[in-house]
Amino acid sequence: MNSMEKYMKMMSLTPYNDRSEMPVFPMMIVTYGAFAGITQAETIQNPDKWIEAMEKTFEIVGRPDVVMPMCPGDTIFVMGLPARIPGKELGENELYQFVETPFFDDPEEYQKIMQMGWQNWHGMYLCQIQNPPFTSPGQLGARYGLLGANLGKTMGHIYSKGMVPDFDSATAPIFDTLSMARSMEEFIYDLYDDPGPIMDIINKYQPEADAATIGMLKANHGTRVGCFAMRSCATFLSPDMFEEFAWPAMKGMIERFHAAGITTILHADADWTPMLEYFTQVPKGSVHIELDGMTDIRKAYDILGGYQSIRGDVPATMLCYGSEDEVAEYCEKLIQMGMKGGFMLGSGCEVPMNAKPENVKVMIESVRK
Questions:
Q1: What is the pLDDT of residues 313-343, one digit of tens each?
Q2: What is the dihedral of CA 15, 16, 17, 22, to 10 degrees?
Q3: d(CA 169, CA 121)
Q4: Averaged over 196-209, what is the pLDDT?
Q5: In this predicted structure, what is the pLDDT of residue 230?
Q6: In angstroms, rounded to a whole number, what is the distance separating the alpha carbons of residues 311 and 367?
Q7: 54/324 Cα distance (integer angstroms)
Q8: What does residue 130 show for φ and ψ, rounded to 5 degrees?
Q9: What angle do CA 134, 44, 221 make, to 5 degrees?
C-alpha cells in the first residue's frame, strides 16, 4: 500500500491486515533544521530551506507516510501570538518562543469585537502583534498570500514524494483564539465573571468563520482541516466549563465541516481525557484526533476506537532521551493496540529539536517490519 492508501484505510476505521498498512507520522517542524544542520533562522526565513532540510532529514531517518505541510515561519504566524524569532530576538539556531501577554486589558473589548465583526477584529489583532506591526490591511493580505503560496509549494513537494500532508488548511475555534489574545488567566476570569459577551461573539461569528474556511478548502479541493484547539482541554478547563463554553461551538465546527465533506484534524494538545466521550456526539469518522501523551491514549482508543481515528503518541522525552529499544518497545505496544483500525502511529505532538535521529528512525521503521 502507498502512503495515501494507508492514510485512507486509517480514516475508514477498518482493521489492519498487517502492520505495514498502518501509517506513521512523526510531526516535524523545527526538527528538520536540527537534523539537517540548517539553522532555525534559515528555515523560518526561507521555506525552500525548510523543504531542503526536510529531504536531508528523510535521508537520515527514512520517509514517513504523513507530513506536517506548514513551514515554521507560517506556523508562527498562524498561531496568533507575539513571538521571539531566531535570527531576530533570539540566536540563529534557538527555538522560537511565543510570548503570551494580554492584548487587551478591558473586557469591554468584547463589545468592540461584536461591533467590528470577528474577521475585521482578528485581522486588526494580527496586524498589531507582528514585529514590526503591519500598518495596513494590504500587508496582512500579502502575508496570507505568501502563506498560501508556501503551503501550496510544500504540499506539492510532499505529494510528489509519495507522502500525505496532515491537512489542507488550518483553523482554530474562536474560543481558543480569544483565550490566547486575552491571555489564559484573564480569559478564565472573564468566563467566570460575565461569559455572555464571549459567547455572543462565538455564537454569532463561529459559523461565519467556518463558512469562510469551507469556501477556501472547496476552492482548493481540500478535504482535511487542521483544527488547533489549544485552550479547550482539561489542562485549562474543567469538564463542566468545556461542556458549557467550548464544546457547543466545536461540535458545530465539526458538524459543518463534515457536512461539507471535510474531516477535522483536531490537534489535541495537553489532557483531553475527560473530554473524549464528547466526540461520540459528532458523526462517525468526522474527526481525527492527534494526542500528545498527556491524554491517556489507551483510554482514548477504548472510547473512540472504531468511531473516530486517533494519532499518537511516542513521547517527546523518549525521542530525546530514550534508547532505541525503549522507542521500539513503546511503538510495538501502540501498534498492537491500534491494529483494530483507525490508528496512526505518531509522535506525541512535535518531535523536538534535540530528538535523537536514530529514535525517529526506529519509530518510522516499526510499522515496516
A1: 999 999 999 999 999 999 999 999 999 999 9
A2: 180
A3: 21
A4: 98
A5: 86
A6: 14
A7: 22
A8: -70, 160
A9: 80
Q: What is the CA radius of gyration of the chain?
A: 20
In terms of C-beta density within 10 A (0-12 exposed, 13-18 middle, 19 or more buried), how is residue 8 classed? middle
pTM of the model: 0.96
Q: Give the CA diameter of the chain.
A: 59
Quick check: 118 pLDDT over 80? yes
pLDDT digits (tens, 9 = 90+) for 247-258: 999 999 999 999
Separation between Cα atoms, residue 315 and residue 355, nearest integer Å: 10
| pLDDT tens string 28-87 | 999 999 999 999 999 999 999 999 999 999 999 999 999 999 999 999 999 999 999 999
Q: Are 107 and 198 in contact (CB under 8 A)?
A: no
What distance in Å separates the CA atoms of residue 220 and residue 16, rounded to the nearest whole number?
Answer: 31
Bridge partner residues of 83 (DSSP): 98
pLDDT at 201: 98
d(CA 251, CA 147): 27
Find residue 265's DSSP bridge partners.
Answer: 226, 288
For 122-177, the pLDDT digits (tens) are 999 999 999 999 999 999 999 999 999 999 999 999 999 999 999 999 999 999 99
Give the dihedral of Cα atoms 324, 325, 328, 329; nearest 10 deg.
Answer: -150
Q: Is-contact 174 75, C-beta < 8 A?
A: no
pLDDT of residue 369: 75
